[in-house]
């Protein structure tokens, strides 16, 4: 007697135009709700590049694009060293992969949910919704309309900072991004500020699960050390951090010079020095991580501090999901006096370091959302 035909599981399609830290936890959550197919044109046949140790895909799970690597290498070389070219490459890559995903979806009728990143998801989301499939948007780039407004505000506060006016996304990109949100059932965001914006628009906003490594570190014995998150750029609040340092007695500001670093004499300023690799990646000896950012930022030092319990002093736009109400502090953009006062409070409190924010809750929330869309 023959048995009943085996019922195929629903397929969850994940579109990933470029290597991304969010891919592994998103695939982990998706596997519990259905079969996974990952469209990753950049992936090598034997694994997902440098991240293959963190994510192992079965042969049937990976969808590749022949000769993609050669074309991508040529464009990457062309874009190297130029911010405008790099941003053009990112937007163009996402748009192209979105078109490829649209064509791929037409040949995969069993797909029940599509997960895709912003600035390249509109076409595939529209096709998915027309066929009754769900759509989950990964908002791993800032919201362009708010970003432009915030950069303009920073430029007014610091008119000599040329990097604040260097790049703005095209109006078509802004419209594309906002259309994606309308089509999405859920939006995965990287910070509490973005989650509040999306919730105010009526969207279902969930935390995007991101892996963060690190272990609790020892406190500081010989004076406060404030680590400025990200590069020492005006958009990350370097001018406010320098002014707050001058208003506080003692301590050092640890910075990471890079493209857009200001002012020109940054490393010659009193009590300012370049952060070591151990201080940036392990937060060794760091009293608190500072993120007085003017615009939406997802800085690895902030995420690492939140994960291992190091205090974070930040604006809402720079805080990600770090819990500022505990040992850290929230400051307003451009508020030097408030930032200096927060540094003095953290220094006086000498908070204990401990375990901070974990990723498990975000993965569980996404798993439930995907299961609900699959039905």
Brief characterization of the structure:
The chain has helices at 23-31, 68-79, 83-106, 122-130, 144-157, 171-183, 192-200, 238-247, 277-282, 300-308, 336-349, 360-374; strands at residues 11-15, 35-39, 62-63, 111-117, 134-138, 186-189, 205-207, 225-228, 252-255, 272-274, 288-291, 312-314, 329-330. By secondary structure, it is an alpha/beta fold.
Give an overview of the whole structure:
This protein has 375 residues and is of the alpha/beta class. 38% of the residues lie in helices and 14% in strands. It has helices at residues 23-31, 68-79, 83-106, 122-130, 144-157, 171-183, 192-200, 238-247, 277-282, 300-308, 336-349, 360-374, and strands at 11-15, 35-39, 62-63, 111-117, 134-138, 186-189, 205-207, 225-228, 252-255, 272-274, 288-291, 312-314, 329-330. It has a 7-stranded parallel sheet, sandwiched between helices. A 6-stranded parallel sheet has the order 10-9-8-11-12-13, sandwiched between helices. Helix 1 (23-31) packs across helix 12, helix 2 (68-79) packs antiparallel against helix 3 and helix 3 (83-106) packs parallel to helix 4. The radius of gyration is 22 Å and the shape is globular.
């Amino acid at each position: 007697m023959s048995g009943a035909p085996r019922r195929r599981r629903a397929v969850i399609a994940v579109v990933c135009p470029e290597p991304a830290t969010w891919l592994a936890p998103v695939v982990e959550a998706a596997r519990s709700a259905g079969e996974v197919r990952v469209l990753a044109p950049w992936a090598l046949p034997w694994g997902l590049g440098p991240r293959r140790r963190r994510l192992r895909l079965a042969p049937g799970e990976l969808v590749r694009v022949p000769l993609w690597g050669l074309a991508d290498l040529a464009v990457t070389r062309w874009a190297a060293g130029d911010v405008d070219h790099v941003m053009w490459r990112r937007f163009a890559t996402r748009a192209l992969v979105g078109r490829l995903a649209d064509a791929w979806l037409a040949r995969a009728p069993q797909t029940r949910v599509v997960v895709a990143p912003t600035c390249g998801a509109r076409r595939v989301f529209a096709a998915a919704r027309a066929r009754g499939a769900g759509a989950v948007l990964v908002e791993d780039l800032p919201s362009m309309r708010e970003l432009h407004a915030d950069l303009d505000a920073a430029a007014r506060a610091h008119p000599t900072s040329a990097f604040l006016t260097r790049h703005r996304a095209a109006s078509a990109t802004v419209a594309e991004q906002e259309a994606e949100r309308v089509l999405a059932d859920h939006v995965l965001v990287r910070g509490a500020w973005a989650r509040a914006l999306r919730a105010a628009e009526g969207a279902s906003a969930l935390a995007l699960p991101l892996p963060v490594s690190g272990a609790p570190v020892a406190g500081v014995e010989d004076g406060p050390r404030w680590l400025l998150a990200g590069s020492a750029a005006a958009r990350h609040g370097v001018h406010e951090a320098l002014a707050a340092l001058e208003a506080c007695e003692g301590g050092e500001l640890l910075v990471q010079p890079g493209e857009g670093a200001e002012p020109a004499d940054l490393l010659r300023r009193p009590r300012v020095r370049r952060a070591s690799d151990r201080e940036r990646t392990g937060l060794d000896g760091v009293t608190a991580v500072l993120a007085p950012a003017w615009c939406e930022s997802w800085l690895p030092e902030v995420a690492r501090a939140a994960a291992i319990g190091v205090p974070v002093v930040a604006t809402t736009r720079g805080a990600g999901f770090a819990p500022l109400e505990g040992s850290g502090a929230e400051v307003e953009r451009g508020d030097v006096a408030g930032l200096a006062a927060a540094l003095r409070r953290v220094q006086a409190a000498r908070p204990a370091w401990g375990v901070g924010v974990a990723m498990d809750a975000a993965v569980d929330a996404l798993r439930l959302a995907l299961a609900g869309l699959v039905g």
